[in-house]
Specification:
This protein has 188 residues and is mainly α. Helices cover 67% and strands 0% of the residues. The longest helix is centred in the first third of the chain and has 35 residues.
Length: 188
């Protein structure tokens, strides 16, 4: 998957979100009507409540396990990247399980499965590594275009120079210092 900078085309994220907020509820309503026609209203509502309760229980159990693994990683001095990603997936799973409907419950239940989260982690990690590789060695900001308003050589030289901090100073003898204001006290 190429980024907007690589393809030159903007991804219509707003349109995708709008479609998701319209199409997902319509699909959920259609599935609820079908299941309600097969099972009846009472069993359908009971099944929705049951999936939410079981999902919340599984979410709590797995969330605690991920939190413990993250704490162990931090005590060992390593960054718990996988655990943070799994925690993010569990938050999304919880939101999907709390939303009434069978499609969102199915998506939330899938995110509760460790092999699914592992697959998603590998995909996201691969995607990020590809973007970093594609952006490495290119112009400022990761684009392949030379910087605006100057030659590439000048921009490269400026990128290597440390930032300049313009300041003035004045030497003050310890006896010439004014008394501090507020609750700050001078150390002896």
């Amino acid at each position: 998957m190429l980024s907007e900078k690589q393809t030159g085309r903007a991804r219509p994220i707003g349109l995708l979100l709008l479609a998701a907020f319209i199409l997902v509820p319509l699909a959920e309503i259609a599935v609820l009507i079908e299941v309600g026609g097969w099972l009846g209203v009472g069993p359908t509502l009971a099944l929705i409540i049951l999936t939410a309760v079981v999902g919340a229980w599984m979410l709590r159990r797995q969330g605690i396990a991920v939190l413990r693994r993250a704490q162990q990683q931090m005590h060992q001095g390593t960054v718990p990247l996988v655990e943070v990603f799994e925690g993010f997936c569990l938050v999304i799973a919880g939101a999907l399980l709390l939303a009434p409907g069978f499609l969102t419950d199915t998506a939330g239940a899938l995110l509760l499965l460790p092999p699914v989260r592992d697959f998603l982690y590998r995909r996201v990690r691969h995607q990020l590594e590809e973007q970093v590789r594609a952006g490495a060695g290119s112009g400022p900001g990761g684009s392949d275009q030379p910087p605006r308003g100057g030659a590439q050589k000048d921009a490269t030289r400026r990128d290597r120079m440390p930032p300049v901090i313009d300041a003035e100073f004045e030497e003050v003898e310890p006896g010439d210092m004014p008394e501090p204001r507020g609750s700050w006290k001078r150390r002896p």
